[in-house]
Amino acid sequence: MAVNKRAEMMEETRAKLIAAGRKAFAEKGFAGAIMDDFTAEAGLTRGALYHNFGDKRGLLAAVVDEIDSAMAAEAHEAGQRAGGGWPGLLAEGAAYIEMALQPDVQRIVLLDGPSVLGDPSQWPSQNRCLQATMATLRELAEQGLVKPVDMEAMARLLNGAALNAALWVAASADPQATLGKALAAFECLASGVLAKQGACAE
Q1: pLDDT per position as a tens digit, 97-125
Q2: Looking at the UniProt feature table, which residue ranges are given for the DNA-binding region (predicted)?
Q3: CATH value of 1-54 in 1.10.260, 1.10.10, 1.10.287, 1.10.490
């Protein structure tokens, strides 16, 4: 029982620090946030932060993983609502790109994330998303709906297109206007994997 209680307390501490980090990074950005923003908000000591995440960069990595994983889950739900399969895959990509309009996603995941943590394609959350895309493409390939090319390569390029579109929207001077262009281009590019070509969005 004592071991379980300790594990619960550690998980609670991590959750508090991640929540405090998310708030501070969203409001002040990575560069502007300081240690006291995280610890005071969570009611914890710096020692707890160092023990759980090592430093501010480690906390950012945990916050980015939480948000990006939630984005992937939300995109997956959009795909399910679209009926799965090819329409679902397009809907997932579009939903991910559209989330670039959310202020905390913009600042934490799409602006500070790459500049502090490096290549987003190497993040654990992006790898999980890649595996899900590969699984969907394999199902479509079995049905003869996509071209017979390497599924990992196809998944990486499709996910990369959605990610880079989201990065473009987030960094744009007019994100709303850029979103429309990004979505149309993503659908046009993605449709290139279909065994039978459809018309690109104008």
Answers
A1: 999 999 999 999 999 999 999 999 889 98
A2: 34-53
A3: 1.10.10
